[in-house]
Amino acid sequence: MGFKVIVVGGGPVGLVAAHALSRAGIDFVLLESRPSIVIDAGSNLVINPMGLRVLGQLGLLPAFDAVSSPLAQIERLDHNGKDLGTSQAFVHISENHGRSLRAVSRHDLTAVLYDSLPDESKAKMFANKRVSNISITDNDVTVICRDGTSYNGSIVVGADGAHSVVRDQMRMLTLQASQISGPEDSQVNEEQPFLTTYRALWIRFPTQGDLRPGDANETHGRDVAVQLFAGEDTTVIGIYEHMDMPTRERIRYSTADEEAFVGRWGHLPISHGLTIRDAYNARVGEGRGAGMINLEEGVVQHWSHAGRIVLVGDAAHKFTPSTGAGCNNGIVDVVTLSNELADMFRSIGGVHNIPTTAQLSAAFKAYQATRFDAVIAGCVGSGQVTAMATWQGQLVKFVDRYVISNRTVEKFIYSRAATGMAKSPVFDYIDGEEELNGKVAWTQPMKSSNFAVIN
């Protein structure tokens, strides 16, 4: 058997992994637990320049632009509908990095990523595959699904979200290994690595009233904040509520929980003419156009095991959605991991050769080392933004009400942040023309020759 990757999870991050592997000439299969790869579920995502740059390198920006909406300034209100000032955050990011952030439904993003794959890659993707067990040897890995099917490969990439089965299996295998080698040699992750301080209700409803495509609104106030992104046909809001007691337990919410949530906060404005109750009553789409979830936060300590399993995206780290950082960081995870694997294959003569477990383990560790500090900073920053929007203390309330709306201060903040975003990578083995050219230069230039071919 040649080298083969088993990707678990067919969301945006897993599909970017499929593109990365396909372009590298690496064999793979992708296993998705839902009934189909492209499904109308979940809230909207915001793709920022570091994610857009990768989509551009893959040649997907025209298709992505057709299904997404550019974001400009953010109109801010308090719970009483009073104007808190306009944020120019998206404008500054666009000026610094050469492109506007864009809001897109999860369905449309996954459709763009899936439809653009070659037929031979699509043939390697399987839906309704719920992983039940993972076993490893010194040379390979086997994934068994609940339907009795099994898949054998060289490594598993866990792109299966915050409640990752791959991460759970990795922990179990680490515990088993520690019983043999001794606890001092083990690197066991926490069983529940993420802490939930906020819950959220998202609602999709027709774009109406004073809303226009591309509008971004926020409502801030004690314990609850709302984010709104308006598209051509539908608008999505996320309502973030601070919980009385943080928890590490997974909570599944019912329709009754949603209705109680709207009962508490339905009066809050989401624009000058609409309330949360208006949006909930007008909700549209599959799954009733609404859903309630916990907003987990945290960074897993160990992202790989034994050179055979590695985590990406929400399986490795989870942010509140306030900054839109989650999906973008998952994309960058895939880029970084793919580049490390590309370097490894170059060192052994190409993808047709089989790396050792030690070589794979070294690539996984280098991947985590490259990403770890940036991910922790992103997680902390996202949590701070959520705390500020929900006025968790007098200081952050003061900053939110009177400092953020100061154009000079805000421009300074995003000028400082631009340096960090400019360090985000692109694939070092895929040719591409740079499509994002702003005031701040990217640290890693886009490849425009065949220098980096690895197969």
Automatic annotation (TrEMBL):
<keyword id="KW-0503">Monooxygenase</keyword>
<keyword id="KW-0274">FAD</keyword>
<dbReference type="InterPro" id="IPR050562">
    <property type="entry name" value="FAD_mOase_fung"/>
</dbReference>
<feature type="domain" description="FAD-binding">
    <location>
        <begin position="296"/>
        <end position="346"/>
    </location>
</feature>
<keyword id="KW-0560">Oxidoreductase</keyword>
<dbReference type="InterPro" id="IPR002938">
    <property type="entry name" value="FAD-bd"/>
</dbReference>
<comment type="similarity">
    <text>Belongs to the paxM FAD-dependent monooxygenase family.</text>
</comment>
<dbReference type="InterPro" id="IPR036188">
    <property type="entry name" value="FAD/NAD-bd_sf"/>
</dbReference>
<feature type="domain" description="FAD-binding">
    <location>
        <begin position="4"/>
        <end position="173"/>
    </location>
</feature>
<dbReference type="GO" id="GO:0071949">
    <property type="term" value="F:FAD binding"/>
</dbReference>
<dbReference type="GO" id="GO:0004497">
    <property type="term" value="F:monooxygenase activity"/>
</dbReference>
<keyword id="KW-0285">Flavoprotein</keyword>
<dbReference type="Pfam" id="PF01494">
    <property type="entry name" value="FAD_binding_3"/>
</dbReference>
<protein>
    <recommendedName>
        <fullName>FAD-binding domain-containing protein</fullName>
    </recommendedName>
</protein>
